[in-house]
Design brief:
Radius of gyration: 14 Å
Helix content: under 10%
Largest sheet: 3 strands, antiparallel
Strand content: 25-35%
Amino acid sequence: LPCHCVNVFVPLIQVDEFNGATEFLLGTHVLDQGAEVEVKNHVQPRLRAGSAVIMDYRLAHRGGANLSDARRIVLYFTYSTPWWVD
């Protein structure tokens, strides 16, 4: 199926592996639900404040552990086709 929904992440601070940047499991947006995935095949981009990541809603992702003393502030937008409901 074509992409029916996208997420946009916009960090308001710099994010990296130390403060728990979001991890993405590449290719998972085309797998069947319940398929096994190698978690080691993830990417965790370092992002400057105000940059953006746009991803297919079906892509498996997770926030990393925030090992810093600061809050990890990220704006999160979701855009979808009119017929889709979560």
